[in-house]
Input
Amino acid sequence: MLQAVRELGVTILRYPGGNFVSNYHWLDGVGPERKPRLDLAWHVLEPNTFGTNEFMKFIRKVGAEPYFTVNMGTGTIEEAQWWVEYTNVKEGPYYAELRKQHGFPEPYGITFWSLGNEMDGFWQLGHLNAEDYAKKAREAAKLMKATDPSIRLIAAGSSDFRPGADPQHWNRVVLEELKDYVDYIALHMYVGNPDDNYYNFVATPLEMERRTQIVKGLIQQVLWGSRRDRPIYIAWDEYNVWYRARAGEALRGRRALEERYNLEDALVIAGFLNGFIRNADVVKMANLAQLVNVIAPIFTNEQGMFKQTIYYPFQLFARNAHGVALDAFVDGPTYDTEEFFVGLGERTTKLENVPYLDVSVVYDPESGRIVINVVNRHRDQTLTTELVAQEGRFQGPFEVYEVNGPDIKAENDFGVERVKTVRKPDVQVSSARFTYAFPPHSFTQLIGRLVR
Output
């Protein structure tokens, strides 16, 4: 499992979640005496044997950066400050010395801290309205920043898009109240296909982009005329496909939320990742929820492990899509969706002119390396298209990686890998344009050079 996480290319891991954090008291999970507690979010016993220091050992094993979330539900602002002191202050005050007593002499220097999780949601333990959350988060931010001025803070933005909710009111109040303290606003989105409509489903990442642009506009309005000398960014710190294991017994116990993914789910994740790149001016963090077993790219049991379908597009993006996001112009066939529910309990959307070819492009100006990411949403047709460099020329060979499977419902399982990344023959190019045929229901990544 550790090797699979390393190969996935995860750069930052959020801890401890999620709905869980709104009743989590970090002091229960440090030191020799651990306090078992009821996990009221997921209705199981939490033994607290895995806490702050165990998580940091795991982080170092997989080579990622930690991102901590403080309890803004049942927790106090003082408790949040103590945690920063425990993790980031070298010596002197009580909680820094307590860490040393626990056997960890050096501070961890954790940079990223989220001020709670989904506090707009009525399902959250300690749920607050926008005004009350913003006041509590502001005071926690002041204490945390006074303890370590170098930390970066993330506000809990909208996660509730149910009919009747007002996510933009929440975001505006939070941004107005916290604009002098936070560096990011966190957004959450889960999508699904309960009606088994393939074309509606694979278009859902475009709804994420709509929401991104709305919040980007709110940020610009709130910061208009502000004395703040740095921007506020968006962190999509929870996103995934989640609808099968989201009701009844699937929400309870030690085997809860074990979603099994198929090829169409992998195409949706590739679409999300393309959308993040297309909005890279404002989206500076994105965290797939989650990592192992629970709505996750890696699935294990007592005997083994396998990589789910969504593992493979994420891995290709994480490994290769580094550099500057280019604004790629795409001209090709499109379709319109029906009006449909984005996810379980969500409001509806209707999307027009959805391109069958969903594209993002990343370029490294220093090396000339260019990465072209293409989802062919068409279920049945290969789409042949011409790729044109507006400046300079492409220089091959282009490496070609394809994530595909025998059909859109193909899943992986223990000992069965029907969907994976396949290396296709290189494409030799030495001109400003070349043609490539993208197979139906596929994600393709082409890696070459652009000589200017």
About this structure: The chain has a mean pLDDT of 96. The radius of gyration is 22 Å. The longest strand covers residues 393-404. Residues 49 and 289 are 22 Å apart (CA to CA).
